[in-house]
Amino acid sequence: MLTELEKTIRGKQNFLEQVSAGRIAEPKGFYKTIGLDFLTVASAVYFSYALSIFLKTGAVTGLAAAVFPFLIFSALEVIMIKNIIRRLSILLIETLAILLFFYGDQLKYVILAGAVFFALSFWGEIASRTEMLHSTEIKFLRLTLPLLKKTITALILFVIILFLPRWNDKNVFISERSFGGVFIWSAGIANNFYPEFNFDSTIDDFASSIAKYQLRGTRPYEDLPVAAQKTLMAQVIPQVSDQIKRILGGELTGNERLGDALYKVILASLNDWKERFGIWFTVAWVAVVFLVARTIGAVILWISAFLSWLIYELLVAINFIAIRGEAVTKEVIVFP
User: Fold this and answer.
1) Burial level of 4, CB count in 10 A (0-12/13-18/19+)?
2) Sequence-separated (6 or more) residues with CB below 8 Å from residue 126
3) Whole-angstrom Cα distance, residue 41 to residue 96?
4) How far, in Å, CA of 126 to CA of 316, rounded?
5) What is the dihedral of CA 261, 265, 268, 271, to 10 degrees?
6) pTM of the predicted model, to two decimals?
7) Predicted pLDDT at 327
8) What pLDDT, on the 0 to 100 scale, is given for residue 19?
9) What is the C-alpha separation between 209 and 221, in angstroms, rounded?
10) How far is the C-alpha of 229 from the C-alpha of 222, rounded, in Å?
11) How far apart are alpha carbons 197 and 184 in whole angstroms?
12) How far is 46 from 74, CA to CA, in rounded Å?
């Protein structure tokens, strides 16, 4: 038989063991959220790398591909991470990560870009969490769109600010290599809608595609013999080519690539405006670039939101996360 003292001592030991075990046990989903934090920071590093390559070579496809993972993981973070202090800490790490490939730039631009990115991202975080506080159901798109909108704006301003120290008389907009990358990417999209035109070609080849488009299908041209068609085509192509050269300006032979000639025209015009309007040109340039990027960003926003929603639904379906109802009691102001 145990004495009363022994029972008391053993009872206290069991109680201490239970408390100790409870304290060291990780909360549910601990490792899952750690994995999500890691992926979010890794996506910020990837975006930083893709942006550095874009500013050097104009690799638009790589930059566009890097935007989506970052937006998707950020949307999942605001839904799955409840602790605002933890989310703030991760956001600070994201800011350092997205600047990773730019620490060699001028310090004032690095600090400004980081501050703008962090401020807008945190604003979006608060906006989404406020929406969550006033919602009784998990409506994914409604809760994540405020964050995604602010994050898109943050990324656009981040890119513009980091581009500013690379701006010079020969690089008023973007470098020739960067413009070439953008032009080839845009030409690929345009060819999907207008396969008759060869945009990524020389001026003469482009003029040839326009001449063929204008003549083919017209009754007088189709009624001519093949030899006469070739003769007429040979006469029309130089005329179209001369018109394009006059529009582009400069001493052009027709053997220049269309993208290169277009870049020189834009560069000459922008340099002229820069000399004439000074600081106001810079302000207008930033505004135009921001508006264009924001328009493209609207498309990226909805694609990212849709992909995020699909991943969210998949995580719910495989029971990686679950939706539970909970009763909430809160204080209100009333008149007695």
Assistant:
1) exposed
2) none
3) 9
4) 24
5) -120
6) 0.69
7) 67
8) 46
9) 16
10) 8
11) 14
12) 14
Length of the chain: 336
**Joined tokens for residue 273:** 């405006």
Residue with tokens 């790398």: 49
The pair of three-digit structure tokens given for residue 108, joined into one six-digit string: 């004032």
Q: Which residues contact 143 (CB under 8 A, 6 or more apart)?
A: 78, 79, 128, 131, 132, 135
Determine the residue type at 180: G
Return the HEC string of the chain: CCCHHHHHHHHHHHHHHHHHHHHHCCCCCHHHHHHHHHHHHHHHHHHHHHHHHHHHHCCHHHHHHHHHHHHHHHHHHHHHCCCHHHHHHHHHHHHHHHCHHHCCCCHHHHHHHHHHHHHHHHHHHHHHHHHHHCCCCCCHHHHHHHHHHHHHHHHHHHHHHHHHHHCCCCCCCCCHHHHHHHHHHHHHHHHHHCCCCCCCCEHHHHHHHHHHHHHCCCHHHHHCCHHHHHHHHHHHHHHHHHHHHHHHCCCCCCCCEHHHHHHHHHHHHHHHHHHHHCHHHHHHHHHHHHHHHHHHHHHHHHHHHHHHHHHHHHHHHCCCCCCCCCCCCCCCCCCC
Percent of the chain past pLDDT 90, that is, above it, reads 27
- Quote the tokens at residue 60: 């638009």
Compute CA distances 66 → 22, 43, 246, 325, whole Å: 41, 7, 40, 35
Summarised one tens digit per residue, pLDDT across range 19-60 is 444 444 556 677 888 999 999 999 999 999 999 988 877 677
